[in-house]
Amino acid sequence: MKRLNSQLQQDGAPLELILLIRTLLAGCKEISFRVSQGALAGVLGSTLSENVQGETQKKLDVISNQILKDTLRDSGYVKAISSEEEEDVVPCSADGNYLVSFDPLDGSSNTEINSLIGTIFSIAHAPQWMKPDDPSAFLQPGTQMVAAGYVLYGPSTMLAMTTGRGTHLYTLDKTHGGFLLTQANVKIPEQTSEFAINTSNQRHWEAPIQQYVADLIAGADGPRKKDYNMRWVAAMVGDIHRVLCRGGIFMYPFDKRNPKIPGKLRLLYEANPMAFLIEQAGGLASTGEGRIMEVMPSEIHQRVPTLLGSKEEVESCLEYYVK
Ligand SMILES: O=P(O)(O)OC[C@H]1O[C@](O)(COP(=O)(O)O)[C@@H](O)[C@@H]1O
Ligand SMILES: [Mg+2]
Ligand SMILES: [Mg+2]
Question: Where do the Fructose-1-6-bisphosphatase class 1 C-terminal domain residues begin and end (predicted)?
Fold first, then answer.
């Protein structure tokens, strides 16, 4: 089976980017091991501290964040890091050529129930003019990403990765510790009968999504004349992996509860990297008003409404916005 290295070379990734990706994944392998230890290693449960999002941090949020910071900070490739668990950017090497944004542990609410969790990351060039502690350099649209991916800590540890030449899936071979290519050039089915959304938020949604989801649930008896099934892993990394594997539409839409916060998911280290993977696999990634990867960020922890998945189904969903 092909190794990650040779696929990245085949996709034309520059050597330094390949070395950076390998360094980041070395951190993810350590997280995979710590996660698999669970209660044996005392890594389950919450801490007493809150992150900049106002969420109580899980022990694994803090552990994963520290592992990735320690792994990347002195690598020499990275100028600065932005992380879900860090209020400000983390300065690294002044002559580093890359910026890395990551969600060290996605699906935190799943840690205690031994369910799917993961790490999500995106990589962009660091502007020459930038000082390592300057957050403004991260305020680039997603179209500027040079690589993105996630590592899914599930029954097997899997990697989904793109450098802009298709989306590929890899499986961690725990016998020799390398990621091996298990599915090249993923193509998401354009049509689907599977949707994912947290319906407990329904009363807070805007009218277009209310109507769109109502029509999905109406199934063959409704205007879509087709039955739909629902799934919700409560970990974006798990829901998006399912979409890459068999199609579907994943939604975390605008929510009227607090109009200043237009969604739950964060642009830099959740929505953008997933949008890059989905688009490179032939799917669509929208905020409802436009392409996620064209959103111009105004701050590093900015949130966006998120609609991702099978091309024709996302298009059908967007028609409700036009109506
Ligand atoms: O609790 P809800 O509304 O189901 O939200 C689940 C969503 O929140 C998240 O867990 C947020 O990510 P974090 O766990 O990294 O904070 C997503 O992975 C997931 O899609
Ligand atoms: Mg997350
Ligand atoms: Mg997280």
Answer: 188-321
